[in-house]
Design a protein that fits this description.
Elements (H helix, E strand, L loop, with lengths): L2 H16 L7 E6 L2 E6 L12 H20 L6 E6 L2 E4 L2 E4 L3 H34 L2
Parallel strand pairs: 2-3
Antiparallel strand pairs: 1-2, 4-5
Length: 134
């Protein structure tokens, strides 16, 4: 990674940390001034947003603001977004799947990981117990 790309990426990470965006599900890369975003875009939603339309509008505005901020960083020549849950068409952002459906998928993944974690802990305990009886 060249120095300019490193500086761009550092600035973007700083920007994401200070924003209302859950950056844990976003992969970020920079190559020769081109910034790549991949993953799931999810802002932290204010509690007063209840309807799906208001949530979509909030997400769209947040994406536009993020894009504008990233493009304003010196050295950035282009920004490419490859989010699983949002895409840009004709200058506007659109969700590619229902927000609630996405949340359910994430909950299922977390639950599955927790169950797998419990199984591995149980397996470790079983192996330790069996060692004690050998």
């Amino acid at each position: 990674m060249i120095r300019e790309d490193f500086l761009i990426q550092s600035e973007i990470r700083r920007m994401l940390i200070r924003s209302n965006i859950d950056y844990t599900k976003i992969d970020l890369g920079t190559v020769k001034g081109v910034v790549y975003f991949r993953g799931i875009f999810r802002p932290y939603l204010p509690p007063q947003l209840r309807s799906e339309d208001s949530i979509r509008l909030y997400i769209e505005k947040t994406l536009l603001a993020l894009e504008k901020k990233v493009r304003s960083i010196p050295g950035v020549s282009d920004v490419i977004f490859q989010f699983n849950n949002s895409k840009k068409e004709k200058g506007r952002w659109f969700p590619t799947q229902s927000i609630r459906k996405e949340e359910r998928k994430e909950e299922k993944k977390l639950k599955r990981k927790e169950e797998e974690g419990e199984k591995t802990v149980e397996d470790q305990m079983d192996s330790e117990v069996s060692k004690n009886f050998e």
